Amino acid sequence: MEQPSTAAERRIEKRRAREKKTISQMIALHCAGTHADTDRTERAFCGEAVCPSCAELDTYAVLRTERCRKMHVKTSCEACENHCYAPAMREGIRAAMRYSGPRMLVRHPIAAIRHLLGR
């Protein structure tokens, strides 16, 4: 991948990397709380153990974040006018976020606060 050349491009890429890690952490937290330890045989983007179905959701979410064309102006996917998640995957992300949102403050407080502030 080409290195960003301007300060604005570097800022967007830094935000994109943070968002990919945050969504992956949220999916991993959801998986840890709702799926059996023995099912968590794969690794999420953030490096945590997840089950195969959550690994699929994680890969999809990271790919969508990587390809987001509105990263420079959006505050969150929910507020974006472009919905780039397929309906079934959108439901999976919502479930993961609903579960992990409150728990992120304890497990990953800095990521949670940045996510809430939209930065």
Explain the overall architecture.
With about 120 residues, this protein is mainly alpha-helical. The protein has 4 helices and 2 strands. The chain has a two-stranded antiparallel ribbon. Helix 1 packs antiparallel against helix 2 (about 50-65), helix 1 packs across helix 3 and helix 3 (about 85-105) packs across helix 4 (about 110-115). The longest helix is centred in the first third of the chain and has 28 residues, at about 5-35.
- One letter per element, helices H and strands E, the order comes to HEEHHH
Major β-sheet profile:
2 strands, antiparallel
Radius of gyration: 14 Å
Mean pLDDT: 86
Strand portion, in percent?
under 5%
How is this fold's topology laid out?
Blueprint: H1 7-34, E1 42-43, E2 49-50, H2 52-66, H3 87-107, H4 109-117
Antiparallel strand pairs: 1-2
Helix pairs in contact: 1-2, 1-3, 3-4
